[in-house]
Design brief:
Length: about 210
C-alpha cells in the first residue's frame, strides 16, 4: 500500500490518501482546496472509496462535500462530532472568525468507540482518542504499521486542549492508553507538520515526560 501527505486549506491541514494495488483509495481529512485535491486524485487515476475524519474541526472538513460529491463516496465521523460537521458554531469556523463559515452535510456513517472497520480491502482499527476534541479518532492500519492520529499527537508536541470540548488530561490519557501502546516502529501521521514515530515520541516528546 502507498500513501501521500497533502497539506490543504487555510491552515495547511494534512490530508492523507492511502491506496492499494487496484488504485482504490481512502481519503483522511480533506481540509480544503477541494478542486486541487480532486485534480490530483484524477491525475493519479485513483478510485476513492471513502472519506474518514479524525475529527470535525473546520480545518479538517473544508473539502468534504466537494470530494464526496465528485466521487459519490461516504463520509465517516465519530458520533460525538456528527453535529460538528454541519454546524459552524461547533466546528470552530465561527470561533476563529472565518470569512466563510465552513460546514458539510451530515456524515453517511457514524462511528463509535474502539472498533474494527473494513472498507473494501482496507482494514483499520479505530481508537477513540479524545482530548483535542471529544470525537477525535486515531485510525490504525496495522498491516502498514501506520496510525493516522489527527491533532492528537505531533512530532515533539501534542494537540491543543484549550478549544471547546478539549481536555488536557484526557488528551494525555488518550495518547498513553492508545498510541504509546502501539509498536515503536509505528509511523504517526499527524494533522499538521511532518510524520514521526511512536518510538521517537516516547523517547523525546517533552509533553509526554512525567505523565
Amino acid at each position: 500500500m502507498e500513501w501521500k501527505q497533502i497539506p490543504l486549506g487555510p491552515l495547511q491541514t494534512n490530508c492523507y490518501v492511502f491506496w492499494n494495488d487496484n488504485k482504490d483509495c481512502l481519503i483522511f481529512d480533506p481540509g480544503g482546496s477541494g478542486d486541487a485535491l480532486i485534480r490530483w486524485l484524477e491525475k493519479e487515476d485513483l478510485n476513492p472509496v471513502a472519506i474518514l475524519l479524525t475529527h470535525a474541526h473546520f480545518d479538517h472538513i473544508g473539502a468534504v462535500d466537494d470530494v464526496r460529491d465528485r466521487f459519490g463516496i461516504p463520509v465517516y465521523v465519530h458520533e460525538k462530532e456528527a453535529q460538528w460537521l454541519i454546524d459552524p458554531s461547533l466546528n470552530g469556523s465561527v470561533l476563529f472568525m472565518m470569512e466563510e463559515k465552513i460546514s458539510a452535510r451530515a456524515a453517511d456513517y457514524i462511528l463509535t468507540d474502539e472498533q474494527k472497520l473494513v472498507i473494501g480491502s482496507f482494514h483499520l482499527t479505530l481508537f477513540h482518542t479524545p482530548g483535542h476534541s471529544p470525537g477525535s479518532i486515531s485510525y490504525y492500519l496495522g498491516d502498514e504499521h501506520v496510525v493516522v492520529a489527527g491533532d492528537t499527537l505531533f512530532m515533539g508536541s501534542i494537540g491543543r486542549s484549550d478549544l471547546p470540548g478539549g481536555n488536557s488530561q484526557q488528551l494525555l490519557a488518550s495518547i498513553h492508553d492508545h498510541l504509546l501502546t502501539l509498536p515503536e516502529e509505528t509511523i504517526v501521521l499527524p494533522g499538521h507538520g511532518p510524520e514521526t514515530s511512536i518510538g521517537h515520541e516516547m523517547d523525546g516528546n517533552p509533553f509526554l515526560n512525567g505523565y
